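hey
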């Protein structure tokens, strides 16, 4: 097992030129690393070196870079390593070649440790760490990189062992180190048990802070474990108290409750937080509302909305539209209208989507009088109905014996150039046919054909039935209309 070097680290190697001599252990690297081809502001010298490392066989790298005559500055070396994670064998040779000529910067060393770790080359990585200790450039940053590499590889025990040997390498483990390892573990799926086990072991020696609990609560949020989140939150309040600086932890905890269908509990905690001057910001309320909207929970969404607004937070237009849509979906048009009316008082002005959400609801529910009144409010505020809503409204008004309102919508659409007109046009013709208003029907159909509005075949079938009910004269009118339709 590769845990042995961590428990019993080998002797420090004598120089940086020998630190990375395990090329026979290099693995084929992942392909997802960024490269110099992805970067536009790369220095010319770094670009040349990156091209060599990407294209030249590792055994020929030293000859190729020597032929350039370059002696790259530390900044150039850092650029090259950062953009060459995909060719680690070549970078090892390049790094050793540079080390024979000049002292590496601490950042170059850290990048090298990260490159080796991300490519799962852990023995060479530890050789580099031992050389860094010899040169006095080891830091917490180095170990944070190692934590991440081991956890990404699924080797959580090695990551924890790395934490345990930090002090032997001259780096004192502190709460930042604890949080870095917790974060690395929690980034991986379904590893909360391992994270909590490590946390329980270290918290008596290194007191956790708000960030420690935020990381763990975000992990429980990701896993959706309400019970564990409640326990962790309770411990956090006891150990670190209430503070607005711990907002990330509060957000994660509240989101876990809401996602777990415990919105009542979340609202109770919000009241407590408000009393402690720890109420979350607009980002939390926006995310929480999205969850409740997905759950189609208008009751708790309204309660959350009221708390947000009364706390002085101003919802965005997107939030207003989402909330109005939720209320309409739950047949709560009264509160939907109240939200619409309140928007200007918060400096937010409705857009076409706002109006069309409500208009669609009124059409669907066959609310003839309200839909007609609302249509006039829409056009007064220069917020036209969508073509889909217009067609649906025209059909609804004909079905409910209000043809004049249907014609009003059609004439508005034509005048304002709302397009496409096809669905509304066919709705109008079908409505006129159903009411036997054939003179108007013929006039509108002629105009539509003249302006190349598409009349559907299904509509023509209904018109044929309507006209032929009028006898020979009606049949002649339809036949004339049919010829024009076919020729168009």
């Amino acid at each position: 097992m590769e845990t042995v070097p961590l428990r019993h680290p080998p002797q420090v190697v004598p120089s940086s030129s020998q630190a990375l001599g395990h090329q026979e252990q290099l693995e084929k690297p992942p392909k997802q690393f960024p490269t110099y081809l992805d970067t536009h502001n790369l220095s010319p010298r770094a670009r040349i070196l990156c091209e060599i490392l990407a294209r030249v066989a590792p055994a020929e790298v030293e000859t190729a870079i020597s032929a350039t005559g370059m002696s790259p500055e530390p900044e150039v070396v850092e650029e090259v390593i950062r953009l060459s994670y995909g060719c680690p064998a070549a970078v090892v040779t390049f790094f050793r070649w540079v080390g024979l000529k000049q002292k590496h910067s601490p950042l170059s060393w850290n990048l090298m440790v990260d490159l080796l770790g991300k490519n799962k080359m852990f023995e060479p990585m530890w050789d580099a760490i031992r050389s860094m200790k010899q040169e006095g450039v080891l830091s917490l940053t180095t170990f944070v990189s190692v934590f991440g590499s081991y956890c990404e590889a699924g080797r959580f025990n090695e990551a924890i062992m790395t934490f345990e040997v930090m002090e032997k390498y001259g780096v004192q483990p502190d709460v930042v180190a604890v949080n870095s390892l917790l974060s690395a573990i929690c980034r991986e799926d379904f590893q909360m048990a391992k994270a909590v086990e490590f946390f329980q072991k270290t918290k008596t020696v290194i007191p956790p802070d708000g960030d420690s609990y935020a990381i763990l609560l975000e992990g429980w949020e990701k896993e959706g474990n309400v019970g564990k989140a409640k326990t962790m939150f309770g411990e956090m309040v006891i150990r670190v108290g209430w503070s607005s600086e711990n907002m990330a932890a509060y957000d994660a905890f509240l989101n876990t409750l809401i996602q777990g269908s415990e919105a009542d509990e979340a609202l109770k905690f919000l009241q407590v937080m408000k009393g402690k001057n720890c109420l979350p910001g607009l980002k939390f309320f926006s995310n929480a509302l999205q969850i409740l909207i997905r759950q189609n929970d208008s009751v708790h969404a309204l309660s959350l909305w009221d708390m947000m607004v009364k706390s002085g937070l101003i919802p965005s237009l997107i939030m207003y539209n989402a909330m109005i849509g939720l209320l309409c979906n739950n047949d709560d048009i009264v509160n939907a209208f109240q939200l619409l009316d309140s928007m200007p008082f918060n400096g937010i002005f409705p857009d076409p989507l706002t109006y069309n959400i409500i208009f669609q609801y009124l059409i669907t529910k066959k609310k003839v009088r309200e839909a007609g009144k609302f249509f006039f409010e829409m056009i007064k505020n220069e917020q036209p109905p969508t073509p889909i809503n217009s067609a649906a409204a025209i059909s609804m008004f004909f079905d409910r014996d209000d043809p004049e309102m249907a014609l009003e919508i059609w004439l508005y659409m034509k005048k304002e150039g709302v397009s496409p007109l096809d669905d509304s046009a066919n709705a109008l013709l079908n409505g006129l046919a159903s009411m036997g208003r054939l003179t108007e029907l013929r006039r509108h159909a002629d105009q539509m054909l003249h302006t190349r509005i598409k009349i559907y075949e299904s509509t023509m079938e209904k018109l044929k039935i309507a006209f032929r009910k009028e006898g020979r004269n009606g049949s002649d009118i339809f036949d004339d209309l049919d010829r024009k339709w076919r020729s168009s």
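Residues 1-138 form one domain. The chain has 27 helices and no strands.
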